[in-house]
Amino acid sequence: MKILVTGAAGFVGKNLVENLKCIRDGKNRTRPDLSVDEIYEYDIKNTPEELDEWCSKADFVFNLAGVNRPKDPAEFKKGNFGFASTLLDTLKKHGNKCPVMLSSSVQATLAGRFGTSEYGLSKRDGEDLFFRYSEETGAPTYVYRFPNLVGKWVVPNYNSAVGTFCNNIANDLPITVNDPSVELEMLFIDDLIEEMLDAMEGHPHRCEYPKAGEDGFDGLTPREKSNGKYCFAPVTHKATLGRIVELLNTFHDQPQTLIMPSIAPGSFEKKLYSMYLSYLPKEKVAFDLKMNVDDRGSFTELLKTIDHGQFSVNISKPGITKGEHWHNSKWEFFIVVSGHGLIQERKIGTDEIIEFEVSGEKIQAIHMLPGYTHNIINLSDTENLVTLMWANELFDKDHPDTFFEKVNKNE
What we know:
Helix 2 (48-57) crosses helix 3 (74-93). Strands 12, 13, 14, 15, 17, 20 and 22 form a seven-stranded mixed β-sheet that branches. A five-stranded parallel β-sheet has the order 2-1-3-4-5, sandwiched between helices. Strands 19-18-21-16-23 form a five-stranded antiparallel β-sheet, with no helix packed on it. The chain has helices at 11-24, 48-57, 74-93, 118-137, 161-170, 189-200, 241-257, 268-277, 282-285; strands at 2-6, 38-42, 60-63, 100-105, 141-146, 148-150, 183-188, 206-208, 223-224, 230-231, 237-240, 259-260, 291-294, 297-305, 310-316, 321-326, 332-338, 340-347, 353-359, 366-368, 372-378, 385-391, 403-404. It is α/β, with parallel strands linked by helices and 411 residues long. Helices cover 28% and strands 28% of the residues. The longest helix has 20 residues, at 74-93. Mean pLDDT is 93; it is low at 75-79.
């Protein structure tokens, strides 16, 4: 397929183009039914002649071009209606009836607070233009009304409060939240890209927009319908401004606290964290960890989680023994990644010792059993022993559940 993307230099366009390249170049193999041969990237820098040529060749068109923050409100009409008209006229000129996708906005519903929106009115006019084009030519049209679009590469201080918050908190700049209880519906760019690829495959998610008050709908929320007039991305997330800022501050503090919040697959927290990281300045990409160093080597906490314990790294110098303690209910994994060592464990109240010779040449995970005193010995005379350690719970200095007792009673 030859794909024309208008507004290719914008937030959505840039993300779409880079993902189309991954399919074209065979880097993304999750869409075996899609074949991308050429990508035509049209933006304000391109010429009418290029648009004309690409409209004659395209097998699918994503119209992402538009205006959302002009100096003169009259530019809404020119950017959101005028260019769409030019695009569709050019396709008609070449008799090209390929599918065309339109990036519209939930403001085009003109529901609630959007009832007098100049932007919404211009988007509504653009939608009507596309529907008439489909009726006249028979070309498939996919009209999407997007809520707040968020994700990597959103321009801060432009049209996304979430992008501004991410940028400012990542860069230690102030933010202003007038009403923390305000709720936003957010469509993350990666979820949108998946929907756009669905549209390319010919199976977009269809919907209608019931009028406000109809069956309890607010006029802004799509209702899925297999033959609906509009299309929508089914995966969105809602959160208050207060919750968004609370999470972003948690992400900001992670290098100091080492605490990673719960980030379940597909969750809002996971997607927001990914977005936040994309705004980190170079000086924050790397951060120091506190190494607890003594004559035996070092011990460094790496990462703490809310409900899945914590990770640490232990470095033992040649000939050194560490550990010699036991826990009531805490358990651990010791994973030697470099060096040559011996792990010993003995059940409290017994004499039998179980041993595991460990090496970075054969990486294994060894359980440190509850109720067993345990140690780790560096068997090398020259090399450090490096061990990755995981404990099932965070260390609590007030209730450490750690009791000294040598594994070898006779030493």
